[in-house]
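Need tokens for this chain, all 250 residues.
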Amino acid sequence: MKRLSACLAAMVALAVPAHAETLRIATDATFPPFESLDADGKLVGYDIDLMTAVCKAAALACDIQPAAWDGMIPGLMQGKYDALISQLTVTDQRRKIIAFSDIYSHPIFRFVARKDSGIDISPEGLAGKTIAVQTGTPMDKFVTAEFPKAKIKRYDSGSATYLDLTGGRADVTISYEAQIRYSFLKSPEGADYALTGPRYTGEDSPELGEGVAIALNKRDPELVKAVNAGLAKIREDGTLAALNKTYFGD
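Here are the structure tokens for all 250 residues:
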């Protein structure tokens, strides 16, 4: 009987994860202006401010911590983290393994190249060209599907792609238009570069997703409800609009 009770208790623990007093929230801090580390090692950025506001509105105690991109979703599924905020796009493939909050933004995706490159952003124009992209992202899946004749170089962080672009080892990179415009192009390294080619959204390709949301564990529907309540509150009280204006002038 004791052994049976212990087994049942273990099954309940797996089905309904117990929250720590403080929620552990992971972010890939290599993607300014959404999330990065400042000179003092402090997490800063749009998503950091948004998550902080959601936690406050939902009366949740939250600890946002930097994490490696490729370990975030596995860490969420294994219970290492309670939530992820890192410009995560909602896709059918991801919905199979994790839950999402309500969508809070709909990103536009663009390529960036040297101003004098004259590069043609098309399957034929990028044939034989090198595209730098962060691995495991919607952009990675998009260029793999849409530009089969291109050479694709994949990187673990969102910032590393620009090092090969500016070093002449890649012809283009692709990212969120806001990330390129409000981070890379404003840096000294981005002076000779410009956005190029079409603007892409999830309507152009399923790989680019439905929009951006906070990722949560499927086994924790109560936390999903709490986070959605916090999101709804910061929409209603103008906090979300103020954040968009502060970071992007929208």
